[in-house]
Write a structure and sequence with these properties.
three-stranded antiparallel beta sheet; Ribosomal Protein S8, Chain: A, domain 1; alpha+beta; elongated
Length: about 160
């Protein structure tokens, strides 16, 4: 007996105003997803996504990640490893100060959080996107919120360092 995988379809409306770099990453994602049996058609501003049911949600989430500025290679890993992500929407009050605290001098705070906790962190506009396994994303979210509230970066980072 020939087994047929069940396909499901969803309509997804991407954000408007995507820049050229994001469009390029999006095209790479479409090619990758096609190899996985995910078919994406554009009708007007909507995307019609048809995929085996086990891939549908992850494919939709990958598209969202690309829209938020996550590079294709990281979105691909998210898809393949069945990872998790969380978006922190920063209050626009004192936004540059908050982003500066998250990134740190020359990117040091962000890099240390990524290395110690084992996540990828992306900052775009007033959003912080954290990608990794569920536990690591939750730990990074906690750390970032503490940093945004004014806790010294080194104290927050030291809290997560393994003995």
């Amino acid at each position: 007996m020939n087994s047929v995988k069940k396909c499901t379809t969803v309509v997804f409306e991407p954000h408007s105003g995507l820049d050229a770099h994001i469009l390029s990453e999006f095209e790479r994602l479409l090619l990758f997803l096609k190899e996985k049996g995910v078919i994406i058609n554009r009708i007007g501003t909507n995307l019609i996504i048809s995929a085996p049911s086990e891939f549908l949600m992850r494919a939709t989430e990958c598209i969202k990640l690309i829209e938020y500025g996550v590079p294709f290679e990281r979105a691909r890993i998210f898809f393949e490893k069945e990872e998790y992500y969380h978006i922190i929407e920063l209050d626009k009050e004192e936004l540059s100060r908050k982003i500066g605290r998250i990134i740190g001098t020359n990117g040091k705070t962000k890099r240390n959080l990524e290395k110690i906790i084992g996540v990828s962190i992306f900052v775009k506009d007033n959003r912080v996107i954290i990608v990794g396994n569920f536990d690591s994303v939750e730990r990074a979210k906690d750390a970032i919120l503490r940093i945004v509230k004014g806790k010294p970066q080194n104290i927050v980072i030291n809290r997560f360092q393994r003995p």
